[in-house]
Amino acid sequence: MDQPLYQFLIIPAVKIVAILAVLLLVVAYLTFFERKVLAYLQVRLGPNRVGPKGWLQPIADAFKLLVKEDLIPSKAERFVFLLAPCLIIVPALLVWSVIPFTGETTVFGLLSEPIPAYLTDINIGILFVLGVSSVGVFGIILGGWASNSKFSLMGGLRSAAQMVSYEVPMGFAVVSVLLMAGSLSLVRIVEVQREAHMWFFLPGILALGIYFICGVAETNRNPFDLPEAESELVAGFHTEYSGMKFALFFLAEYANMLVIGSLVAVLFFGGWLRPFPNVEFLAFLDVIPPFFWFASKVGVVIFIYMWFRGTFPRYRFDQLMAVGWKWLLPLSLANVAVIALGILVKNHLLKG
Amino acid sequence: MVQYVPIVLFTLVAVSFPIVTLLIAKAVRAGSPHPVKGEPYECGVPATTTAFETRFSIRYYLIAVLFVVFDVETIFLFPWAVMFEKLALFGFIEMMVFLAILLVGYVYAWRRGALEWA
User: Fold this and answer.
1) For the segment A196-224, what is each residue's pLDDT rounded down to a tens digit?
2) What's the rounded Cα separation, in Å, for the pair A227 and A75?
3) Which residue in the set A69, A161, A178 is minimally distant from B31, CB to CB?
4) Cβ separation B95–A8 shorter than 8 A
5) Number of domain units in chain B
6) Alpha helices in chain B (DSSP H)
7) pLDDT reading at B50 higher than 80
8) Could you list the residue range(s) of the whole structural domain that residue B53 is in?
9) For residue B111, how many other CB atoms are within 10 A of its CB?
10) CATH number at residue B51
11) For residues B14 and B8, what is the distance between their CA atoms, to the nearest angstrom?
C-alpha cells in the first residue's frame, strides 16, 4: 500500500466512519437521556417500556420515524422543502471534522505509533466551526418558508432573527478566549491551556456564561425555544415536516447541542486535559483515557441543557431580543476590552 | 493544505448522509395519500390564505441589517485577537478606537428604537 493513499484516504475514512457512528449513537441515546432527565425532574418515570428499563426506546423511535408516512403540503415549494433538512443536517455533521476529542492516541496500544484522534486540525478551526454552523440557519428559515404554513413561517422568521442576534455576542465571547490562546486552532487552544497551567474559564468566567447562553439560544433550546414554541406555534418551522425529514431536523438539533457542549469543553475547560494537568501529585489520573475527561465535560454541559428545559419558562420574543441586543452584546464587548487590557498589563507592565 | 483533505472527504459523506437516509425512508415508508393531508396545518380550520400572502413585521429585516454590521465587526476582531500578543499597546488603542466608533452607531440604533420590539 502506498503512503499517500494510506494517509489521505484510509485513515480519514476510518475516522469519519467512527465519528459518524459514535455521533449518531450518542444523539439517539441523548434523546433517551433527555426524556429520562426531564421525567425525573418532574417526578415521573419516563420511557420504561421498550426493552429493559426502556433502553431500546431510541431504536424504536428511529424505526418509527423511518417507516412513517412522509407528507409534503400540496402548496409547498417542493424543492426547497426537500433541501431544508439537508441544509441543516450537513453543517451539523461537518462541524465534527475539527472538534478535537482527544490528543494523540494509540487506540489502547493497537497501533504502533500514536495518531491524532480527531479527524483534522486546521489553523482556522474555531472560525470553521462558527462559519459552518451558521449555515444551519438557512435550513431553518428555508424550511419554515417553503412549508407555506403560517406557523412554519413565523417559526422560521423568529429563529432566523434569534440565531443571528445571538451569534454576535457568541463571537465576542470566542474572541475573548482567542485573546488568551493566541490561536484559532482548537487543538492549539487546548495545549495553551496546559501550558498556561489554567483552564480559560477562570479568567473567562463571563465569556463562559455569555457563550453558554448564546449556545442555548443558537440551538433553539428552552428557555429560548421560541422558533418551535409548541404552545403558540404548534412546532414552529418544522410543523409540516414528518417522517425522516423531521428526523433530520431532530438529529441536527441534538448534534448542535453536542457541538456547543464540545466547544465549551475545548474553549473553557481544557478539552481532553485532566483536572490540574501539571500537578505531579495527580499523575495517577493519567490511567483514565483523555477521552473520558472530554466526554464527561460535554456530559455536564448537556445535563445543564436539560436542567434548563426542566426548570425555566420560555422568554417572550421582545424579552429575548432585549437580552441579546441590550445585555449580552455590550457585556461581551466590555468583556473583550477588559481581557485585552488584562493581558496587556500582565505582559508589559508587570514584566517591566 | 494537506489538513483540508479529510474535510473534503467528510463533506462528501455529510452531503450523502441525508440523501441516503431519505432514499432508504422512501423505500420502506408507509404511504396513503389523501388531499386533506396536503393541507397546511391550521388547527383544523380550512386555510383562507396561504402563508406566502401573509405579512410579517419589518423588524425581522432590521435585526438582520444590524446583525450584518456587528458580525463584520466580529470578523475584524478575530485576527486582532490572535495577534494581540505582538500588537500590544498599539493594537489595543487601535481596537478601542474602532470599538468606540461602532459604539456610537450602537447607541444611535438603540436611541432610534431599532432594538425595541413593540
Assistant:
1) 777 888 888 888 999 999 999 888 887 88
2) 22
3) A69
4) no
5) 1
6) 5-28, 59-82, 84-111
7) no
8) 2-111
9) 9
10) 1.20.58
11) 10
